[in-house]
């Protein structure tokens, strides 16, 4: 049997965490890694740590397998894991052609929407890079990179319309601290992961303003109903919204100390401008971009999404967080 060859595209905390899982997993495989930052590549080769993200994690890849040359990295692999924030995906793939991806499995670890295109990653790769839907996989589930670094038990969901493909890929990630589920819901899984980032921003805003745990619980129970309404409108199949890839991911992001989106929202609630909140964090909160993309996407579906609407108004129409959230409280139950 052929040894699986896996390429990671991205150098942030989630890419670093998934490289750790792939390295700790016992199935024989080759791992390749593209990062844009050449100084980080030099550091990784010399010291076996990513200097900017999860810097305590040891990463022992062969030196020749780490490169800033994306075509070289892609050409060597069968699975290509996309793992840059969605806002930078187009730029990252600017030198990549559909021919270079032909026959490969494309795995999205991104929880975001491609700006301007207003597409989830699977749709974007299918339309713009001609990747057949059966070659698209999604990695999702409630899992923070920081807890992977600490080897805390985490569950991931691997989605593909072909469950055998999902199962084969999931076998490359399982470790003592990573368990995997499989799913055939590529659209629902991606959209739920995008939406939960917006609700984490809402949760952070409410916390920053001074709402307590009692209200947070109401906010999140309304948020899961928004997710359900939206994914049912976009892709009406039978799914249990209480599964970890949907409800679990929403809960971890809304409550965890590690949540980037909640942290960002908290700063907005405390009065930071979007720019100053972004500068203060050296990580990306996808929910900021997703709020705008989902606002456009939902013009087509017209799903009732008062929480998304409130976050959009605060972030993009400069509405007061206090007033917008007070109005929102009248619409929740
Ligand atoms: N962190 C987590 O726990 C999880 C994250 N995800 C998802 O993973 C994806 C990646 O996020 P994450 O790893 O957290 O990101 P981080 O915030 O940890 O890292 C940011 C990444 O974005 C890159 N970047 C920043 N600015 C630019 C730019 N102008 N052009 C190109 N690249 C840029 C950085 O590269 P550089 O270092 O060179 O600046 C770095 O690789 C997101 O979609 C996120 O939702 C999913 C599950 C868990
Ligand atoms: O998706 C994630 C965890 O499942 C990470 O996003 P947050 O850091 O915003 O929680």
From TrEMBL:
Keywords: Cytoplasm, Lipid biosynthesis, Lipid metabolism, NAD, NADP, Nucleotide-binding, Oxidoreductase, Phospholipid biosynthesis, Phospholipid metabolism. Residues 185-322 form the Glycerol-3-phosphate dehydrogenase NAD-dependent C-terminal domain. It comes from the Bacteria. The active site is at 196 (proton acceptor). It is found in: Cytoplasm. One of its GO terms (molecular function) is NAD binding. Its main location: cytoplasm. NADPH binds at residues 13-14, 36, 53, 111, 145, 260, 284, 286. GO terms for biological process: carbohydrate metabolic process; glycerol-3-phosphate biosynthetic process; glycerol-3-phosphate catabolic process; glycerophospholipid metabolic process; phospholipid biosynthetic process. One of its GO terms (cellular component) is cytosol. Residues 6-165 form the Glycerol-3-phosphate dehydrogenase NAD-dependent N-terminal domain. It is an enzyme of class 1 (oxidoreductase). Its EC number is 1.1.1.94. NAD(+) binds at residues 88, 145, 260. PROSITE patterns: NAD_G3PDH. It catalyses: sn-glycerol 3-phosphate + NAD(+) = dihydroxyacetone phosphate + NADH + H(+); sn-glycerol 3-phosphate + NADP(+) = dihydroxyacetone phosphate + NADPH + H(+). Belongs to the NAD-dependent glycerol-3-phosphate dehydrogenase family. This is Glycerol-3-phosphate dehydrogenase [NAD(P)+].
